[in-house]
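Everyone, carefully examine this protein record:
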Amino acid sequence: MADLSRVQTKIERIMNGRDNPGAMTIPLAFAEALYRSGVNIRNFLFDRGVFKTLHAPCKVISVGAITIGGAGKTPFVKLIANRLKDKKPGILSRGYKGEFKTDIHVVSDGYTLGDAPPVSADEPYMLARSLKGIPVVCAPERIKGAKKIVELGAGVIILDDGFGSRAIARDLNILILDAKNPFGQAKRLFPRGVLREPKENIIRADLIVVATSDDISDEKFGEAKKAIKRYAKDHAPIISVAGTITGFTDIYGAPQAPPSGPVAAFCGVAGPERFYGSLEKLGHDVAGIISFPDHHRFNAADIAAVAEKAKASGARFIVTTEKDAVRLLNFSDAFNVPLLSATYETRLTRGEEILDRALAALF
């Protein structure tokens, strides 16, 4: 098991451009070629109408990414949901890593939360907990979930992580790309890199959002825009957002004062360095960190390791992400110092009027 974990870590580092493939060059290149063939065949069959694209009973806005990992999709889904509250939005997710056994899983009907993780997937549950009055549904077959979410009163569906889900039609196709590395550091397809699809498929996007954890200069934005425009539709606008920590809660969502003194930070998200960097930018003394794989299901040994790290580093608080907090509800009393969840919000930094026009054009 330890050997498997080391191989997985090595591949993840290669995918993110932080390590050379070395002896794994040929196996990864072969796997990448097979993956590319599968993706291209699937898209060809959708383009030719062999695979059918079905229409939901209402308007659909897709928010997705072309890369694996933390592009900033979920915070942007939340931003869109809040901007469309008067249109009765509902959020539809595949439910990745959720352990529900049904074709359709209602995370929230807009008023009552369903099962917490691991039954519900962590990101949909996090959204449902923070967006009161907005139904959240998980369904691997999105069209089935679309019908259910309309039954729950939704007037418009926001498809979370929907760029590659071509079996359901969308009226606005929004693509999120990282500002620093729009196509990943390695710029290669999975498993050699983090691209889910070839860069050329960006052409399907109606609106492109460049996301970062802090404000980027006009020069850096221009560089990202230039790289993206090589593959995007001529008329597809490119806007930008920045995310930051805006406050702290306990793991149940109750607001708390910011931590004072040294903190131990841990998370199981893609791109954990962004989380640690955000804490430091706010002036918090991050005395110790522990990172776990994305969507990690925590166990007693993990909690003990975090508690030990906090003790060894002299931390007065332990801080994690909202996404991790919903996977820690069974461990609320297991830490030796107070546990806080950092609330992360995305704000528009360029193109607010462009987004508002695109949304208004749907109704």
